[in-house]
Amino acid sequence: MMPGPIFTVAPAKARCQQSPCSRRGQHPSAVPPSRRSTKPSGWLLAVCVLVSLANTGAIRAADAERDLATVAPADVGLRADGVDAIAAAMAKLVADGELAGAVTAVARHGKLAQFQAVGKQDIAKDTPMAKDSIFRIHSMTKPIASVALMTFFDEGRFALDDPIGKHMPKLNGLKVLAMGEDGTRQPVPASRQPTIRELVSHTAGFTYGFFSRTPVDALYRQANVLDNNSTLGEMIDKLAELPLWGQPGERWHYSVAADVQGYLVEVLAGKPFDQALRERVFEPLGMKDTAFFVPQSEASRLATLYSQRPGRPLAPMPGGEPFEPPKLHSGGGGLYSTAMDYMRFCQMLLNGGELDGVRVLKPETVALMQTNQLPEAVEFINPAIGSPGNTFGIGFAIVAEPDGRTDHARAKGEVWWYGIGGTWFGVHPTEDLAIVGMVQNMGGAGARKARLQSKRLLYEAIEG
Fold it and tell me: Which residue of 56, 251, 386, 397 has the lowest C-beta tally within 10 Å?
């Protein structure tokens, strides 16, 4: 358990995690409709909210400095040899030819206990990996997009159970591709319109176009939904004409939902998504190197993206480098960042929505994001890795029942995600712990090994 809360209510905590009040925050739309029950009494609601805030790091000792200053691992309850083993594991993957290089960072109790770079940023140029190397974080853009969206939730601009068409009228009247009596698939009206809650938890019925092989995915590819030369508004125009993959709320399915969230942010902010992100997330958190492109002046810091086929050496991925602002600001996978920038984002979550005295989200909103939002009948399985025992909150997955293979037993309660190019993060509110890993390896086993090994070693290093 993390130190520093004003009080400890261990028995109540166990009850509140199973009670609707732990999902309510202070907003009536906090609980999925299928999970709501009778309203709890006032004292129970108060206890649940307080415990929930304590779990997200909102209630801490007043004199605690959570400034990400570097400390010895032992100062924050971590074994030094266990923490050192993380960089050693990354170095071995580099030596074995499975990674070009890696940057890892670990924070606990608001302090930085590990921050190391190993290997090469670019093999051919013999450029060493640096702590401030810039990485394509791909799907680790998604939690950032969700945080930006939830700043408007804090302002009362929407409710989670609002139909998405209420705020994005172009998406009213969506249809679902269904099997007809004649054996052909035809678009039919959706049973109801998707809600924002379903949008932020990948249960709205959208798909991605390349993670599954359905007729709807084929239509996404034909329409080039995520065309880099189009805007978010033009993406919405395409989606408005395409059927959903499934009925809203029916199944969890990885999708363009975070890109739709980006457009929703544009609508609510009345300005481009990149500008809203800068004003609401990057500048308040001091994420100075996070953006949708890398300035030409910083091109030398960009890590090379590699691919690897079984039995083959690492090979640079083809394609131009993005040193100019893109037309498509993809909330699902468009950002570039550094390990420290992303650690600042993670620390904000651990602090209950603030960093260095600047508040981005309300504590109860952070607690809500870290609470399962899936209907009881829906199981979360990430199609990329398969993750039984996980659920999904708002913007990221949550370890509910570690399976012993991909999740360490002590990881229960961790919120996490990763990027297809090799980056990963985990935030554990109860352990008051965060880890960020950055590599650039798409398609090989090295990135997955790095992600799983680093987390296993970290949890094994916890002493108190």
Answer: 386
